[in-house]
Design brief:
The structure holds 2 protein chains of 2 kinds.
Chain A lengths: L10 H19 L33 H5 L3 H13 L2 H5 L20 H10 L14 H13 L36
Chain B lengths: L3 E4 L4 E5 L20 E5 L6 E6 L15 E7 L2 E9 L4 E6 L5 E6 L6 E4 L6 E3 L10 E5 L13 E3 L4 E7 L1 E7 L13 E7 L6 E7 L4 E8 L8 E2 L4 E5 L4 E6 L5 E6 L9 E4 L5 E7 L7 H4 L20 H4 L5 E6 L4
Antiparallel strand pairs in B: 1-2, 2-3, 3-4, 5-6, 6-7, 7-8, 9-10, 11-14, 12-13, 13-16, 14-15, 16-17, 18-19, 19-20, 20-21, 22-23, 23-24
The chains are: A mainly alpha, B mainly beta.
Chain lengths: ~180, ~325
């Protein structure tokens, strides 16, 4: 089996990945307090609704609107979810590690919060994928995870998939065993 | 690796080895030597005396870590030093423990993944219809990855000459998936869904006659029996259920003599001991968990039958039948 020859990287996602690396380097180079809010990115996302001194949570990442409920990204995220062994702990959403389809979130269920959990990792076994996966793929996996318990109604503002220039549509995975609902 | 048994006369220890990974067997050709088998070793220098591979090139997660019971018993009219192994793959083996020769292997629950064990070679004869395949869901394979029984130990009574085998009655659908090795992540390579086996009862306590090579009786249980069994000189067999019942049945008739509902499902091992006060006690840990109880202990979602490597598929109702726990119960027998 030539597993390792079938990396799902494509040119578009690689470019996004490089952009993310540059951004991460910038973040590390500066004290957090000096950062303008707009540059702190989705990794500054809050995982709680409690803030000292009556503070408010950082604004939702603008990328949430790009990825949330987008069938193309969700489909690709589902493929990557298997490809990167996420199913080994989370199964097809039911879990062995934490379940992902029951709409209960330890670190927040907003799409950018799910992105942050995948990117940063979480205690008790969730690895950090930042720097290991292209940023766009993390967003796609987050979109898939979010979709497991999202209401069935489509996002009104997202009637067609956002086109990615020069990127072919992702293949529909042929995995008849991957189901998120029981037979 | 599971239990270790020791024979002081032959000066050998016996233990089993785990299954090869990943579950997708098409990514690991060959016999995958030293996996899924039984070792006999000299405890003084560690040297292997013999090795018997219960499942060369495992395709169904039939590892070989279950308990080993050492008996001296008649085989074809001659007393032999044997070891007994009720295996994950559904066969109860009788093996000459001096040489590793397989003397018999009989199914003690529903099995269709293999047709028999070839006693000349010791190898299972695979059923080609139930071999697992990439990108194809093979349905109704019996037993499951968790086995006709898992690690929960059986008990032997020298008074009755019978073995009391706590076990499951489950089958499964299995689809191989190409899997990448990624450090820090599970290396599985299969989608599995388990379900109740023939008859619908998901567990049983089977009483087995090792000389006659057949079941004497079977106490059916709704849920897989994941606790060990204990048989006493008073001819009582103790075991627990995943609903939380701690039961005592008659070792000869199988009749239920006593039961007590503990606070959580039982996957522990019953223990009998004499206290400093001279009275006899029976102890059991109650607290569901492990592979079988992961849906309760980990609060998994019953909507996904592949959750907990497929085990949620056969116990989606477990949250309605028990709750998490962790309590040691000790029962005193009446003063004699």
């Amino acid at each position: 089996m030539s597993l390792r020859c079938r990396r799902p990287n494509r040119s578009g996602t690689v470019k996004l990945s490089l952009a993310a690396v540059v951004l991460a380097a910038t973040v590390r180079a500066q004290p957090l307090s000096d950062l303008p809010a707009t540059e702190s990115g989705p990794l500054s996302v809050a995982v709680t609704t409690l803030f000292p001194g009556g503070g408010s949570p950082p604004p939702e990442s603008p990328l949430v609107k790009v990825y949330q409920g987008n069938p193309q990204y969700i489909s690709e995220g589902r493929r990557l979810f298997t490809w990167y062994n996420c199913y080994g702990c989370h199964a097809n959403g039911g879990g062995m590690g934490p379940a992902l389809m029951n709409d209960q979130w330890r670190y927040g269920g907003r799409l950018d919060q799910i992105y942050a959990s995948i990117s940063q990792g979480r205690p008790n076994g969730m690895p950090s994928w930042a720097g290991k996966l292209p940023d766009a793929q993390i967003w796609e996996i987050a979109a898939f995870v979010r979709s497991l318990s999202a209401p069935a109604a489509p996002n009104k503002g997202q009637t067609s998939p956002t086109p990615r220039v020069g990127v072919p549509p992702p293949p529909i995975p042929e995995t008849p065993g991957v189901q998120t609902t029981p037979k | 690796m599971g239990w270790i048994a020791y024979d002081p006369d032959l000066n050998l220890i016996y233990y089993g080895t785990g299954n090869p990974g990943p579950w997708n067997h098409e990514q690991r050709p060959g016999d995958n030597k030293w996996t899924a088998g039984i070792f006999a070793r000299d405890p003084d220098n560690g040297a292997a005396k013999w090795f018997y591979q219960t499942f060369p090139h495992d395709e169904h997660d039939y590892d070989s870590v279950n308990e080993i019971i050492l008996l001296d018993m008649p085989v074809d009219g001659q007393t032999r030093k044997v070891l007994i192994r009720p295996d994950r793959n559904g066969y109860l083996y009788v093996i000459d423990r001096a040489t590793g020769e397989v003397l018999s292997a009989d199914a003690y629950g529903p099995v269709n993944s293999t047709k028999a064990i070839d006693l000349k070679t010791g190898r299972p004869i695979l059923n080609p219809e139930k071999e697992t395949k990439l990108g194809q869901t093979v349905r109704d394979i019996c037993p499951t990855a968790s086995g006709t029984k898992d690690w929960e130990p059986s008990a032997f009574s020298p008074r009755t000459g019978l073995i009391y085998v706590p076990h499951a009655n489950l089958c499964m659908d299995w689809e191989n998936i190409q899997v990448n090795y990624i450090s820090g992540t599970p290396y599985v390579g299969a989608n599995v869904r388990m379900k109740a086996g023939p008859g619908g009862n998901r567990g049983a306590l089977t009483t087995w006659d090792p000389v006659k090579r057949k079941a004497v009786s079977e106490e059916k249980e709704d849920l897989p029996v994941w606790s060990g069994a204990l048989v006493t000189a008073g001819d009582l067999v103790f075991y627990g259920t995943m609903e939380g019942w701690f039961k005592a049945v008659d070792a000869k008739s199988g009749e239920l003599k006593w039961q007590f509902k503990t606070g959580s499902g039982i996957i522990g091992q019953p223990v009998a001991y004499r206290g400093p006060d001279g009275r006899e006690y029976i102890a059991i840990l109650s607290g569901v968990g492990g592979w079988a109880g992961a849906i309760v202990a980990g609060d998994l979602d019953p909507k996904d039958p592949t959750a907990a490597l497929g085990f949620v598929g056969d116990v989606p109702d477990l949250k309605q039948k028990t709750t998490p726990g962790g309590t040691l119960y000790v029962f005193a027998l009446p003063p004699s």
